[in-house]
């Protein structure tokens, strides 16, 4: 799935987010390129703006039926480990790339901020999808700043109201700020059921089934 998504993005969106940021800097395109701020502050603001953009893209992917049809492939995994972080439909990856490019050009986010963001996005995705248990005291303190595996596991719960929460991917503050934070799951983490009711058969996890999942005849795309 990762291979198909990567090839698809390279063919359809060859410029990518980094290319868009270089263009924005060279041409002075976007908000941050026309306001007078120290470069270090521009990098910090640019990074935070990208975090907010991806938070709301993720949130919309749960609320807009068409977007959910593609995003639900990520949630249909009935296990929770670092491979789940790589499990995204190619069309969703392409859509996300266009969203990032549009945000970068509109906001004038510089290349260094994009590089830092992409590193953080990939590193924290692997971390917060990890099937690991962090000591309770450490986890509680760490969660003030970062999305932990326990916090994100709630987002992959089989219970819809939990799935529709904890959208942050790196900094955990966005869910608190925007009112989508769930601190504790209804069921204990050790016995929490992961995935979606609709896709629980072993055959649903085959590559062909996953690739065609968004195009199934059901029109509601319910959880």
Write a concise synopsis of the structure shown.
The chain is mainly alpha-helical. It has helices at residues 2-12, 16-27, 31-34, 39-63, 65-75, 90-107, 111-128, 136-142, 149-155, 160-163, 173-177, 207-212. The protein has one domain (2-12, 21-215).
Helices and strands in order:
Layout: H1 2-12, H2 16-27, H3 31-34, H4 39-63, H5 65-75, H6 90-107, H7 111-128, H8 136-142, H9 149-155, H10 160-163, H11 173-177, H12 207-212
Helix pairs in contact: 1-6, 2-6, 4-5, 4-6, 4-7
Q: Any overview of this molecule?
A:
- The chain is mainly α and 223 residues long.
- It has one domain.
- It contains twelve helices and no strands.
- It has helices at residues 2-12, 16-27, 31-34, 39-63, 65-75, 90-107, 111-128, 136-142, 149-155, 160-163, 173-177, 207-212.
- It is globular and about 50 Å long.
- The two termini are 22 Å apart.
Task: Output the keywords.
mainly alpha, 12 helices, globular
Query: Structural class, from secondary structure content?
Result: mainly alpha
* Strand and helix order: HHHHHHHHHHHH
Straight-line N-to-C gap: 22 Å
Q: What proportion of the residues is helical, as a percent range? A: 55-70%
Quote the beta fraction: under 5%
Uncertain residue ranges: none
């Amino acid at each position: 799935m990762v291979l198909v998504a990567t090839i698809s993005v390279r063919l359809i969106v060859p410029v990518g987010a980094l290319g868009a940021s270089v263009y924005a800097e060279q041409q002075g395109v976007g908000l941050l390129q026309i306001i007078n701020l120290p470069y270090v502050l521009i990098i910090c603001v640019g990074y935070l703006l990208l975090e907010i953009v991806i938070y709301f893209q993720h949130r919309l992917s749960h609320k807009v039926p068409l977007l959910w049809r593609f995003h639900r492939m990520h949630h249909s995994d009935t296990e929770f480990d670092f491979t789940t972080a790589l499990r995204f439909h190619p069309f969703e990856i392409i859509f996300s790339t266009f969203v990032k490019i549009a945000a970068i050009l509109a906001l004038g986010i510089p290349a260094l901020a994009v590089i830092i963001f992409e590193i953080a996005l990939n590193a924290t995705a692997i971390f917060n999808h990890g099937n690991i248990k962090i000591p309770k005291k450490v986890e509680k303190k760490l969660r003030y700043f970062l999305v932990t595996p326990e916090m994100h596991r709630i987002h992959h719960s089989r219970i819809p109201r939990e799935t529709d929460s904890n959208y942050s991917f790196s900094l955990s503050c966005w869910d608190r700020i925007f009112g989508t934070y769930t601190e504790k799951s209804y069921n204990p983490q050790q016995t929490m059921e992961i995935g979606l009711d609709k896709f629980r058969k072993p055959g649903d996890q085959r590559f062909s089934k996953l690739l065609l999942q968004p195009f199934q005849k059901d029109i509601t795309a319910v959880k």
